[in-house]
Structure prediction request, 111 residues.
Amino acid sequence: MAQAAQANAFDASDSQIHVEHDKKGRQFVIRLNGSHDRAVLLYEYIGKKLVDLQHTEVPDAYRGRGIAKHLAKAAMDFVVEEDLKAHLTCWYIQKYVKENPQPQYLEHISQ
Prediction:
């Protein structure tokens, strides 16, 4: 029950969200309320210049608060900054790019 109360108090405003990029673990992470709960976006390299954005996961108690969009933005910004191509396996990343059709994102998507 305490976990649910903690989750309800979580605010997903931009000032509250900090996305960590764990390059070694090939994931983007948001720690939720400093607890053990984490939202993650996992990716794998397929060759030197192609990454597969595979899976985004937000704990049930935190869903619907816009947390995944911060992971998606961080991942797509990483792809652009590193001049990589992205294969979008994750349905959420596909949705994010469709809803945010930034030219810099679109030109880095592998067809």
Q: What stands out?
A: The first strand starts at residue 19 and ends at 22. The chain has a mean pLDDT of 89.
